[in-house]
Write a structure and sequence with these properties.
It contains 9 helices and 12 strands. It is of the alpha+beta class and 292 residues long. The strands form 4 sheets. It has a 4-stranded antiparallel β-sheet with strand order 1-6-7-5. A 4-stranded antiparallel β-sheet has the order 2-3-4-8. Strands 9-10 form a two-stranded parallel sheet.
Length: 292
Amino acid sequence: MPELPEVQTIISDLNKKIVGYKIVDFWSDWPRAIKNKSLANFQKEIRNRKILNIRRIGKNIFIDLSGKKTLYIHLKMTGHLLVKTAIAKKQEPITKNYFEDKVNSYIHHIWTLRTTNQKPITLEFSDMRKFAKIVLDDTKKINSLPEIRKLGMDVMDKKFTLKKFEEILDKSKSRAIGLVLMEQALMSGIGNIYRSEILYTAGVLPQRKIGLLSKSERIKIYRAIFIVLKKAIRLRGTSDSDYRDTAGAPGNFQKILGVYRRAGKHCRKCDTILKKIILGQRSAFYCPKCQK
């Protein structure tokens, strides 16, 4: 599932490529992804709305539209958004047409976009497993949706201070730090890939109980969150599986992963063999020497 760096990469791309365009048509061969509306009603309500801004909370994408409506998209396991436009190719020259890759071929939803002085472009939703979710609602109601209301603070929010982080930890002292980092109701944005990388950077084992962490270890974890996520955003995310950016291209963070999915390989820092444990029904990776 795409995590914060992957979703932020998509958000940044979409703000550059589709803001100012008007939605003139919508097609879908999987209307079950559209929640609380029929396909016909969705098409009617979204048509002729202008795209004003794209933002996110945690791993959730919000496309604000004219008429005080917002399109909310959750990519789930295999979803990713593609912008197909000759304009984007001129602005961002590429040596390969990534749209032809198999992973980008599972198109189930297409928004046709137009401006007064440009040729139509398409925003296409590739989703192999068809788990993704699409919601259209009043902008003022979006944050009141149950799945959004229960989210914890986004870890890249300016209000996510060390004090806020420690308040979260203090409520979960008996739990493993590797579990709490992924708890979206406590703090949103971190998933399985980045919890392992954050704790590796901080030098803390994922199974450590929070109540046993020292003040300095808490600070190291807090700082590692920003170090790892900002680097992953710069490298346009991790293409561990199906994730691709809006040009259909893979991210680059997987090339420098420290521990994630590297069990049995040598640590890049100390040459120790890396290990894997199951934590919260998910695999967590670590170095038994670098992490304490």
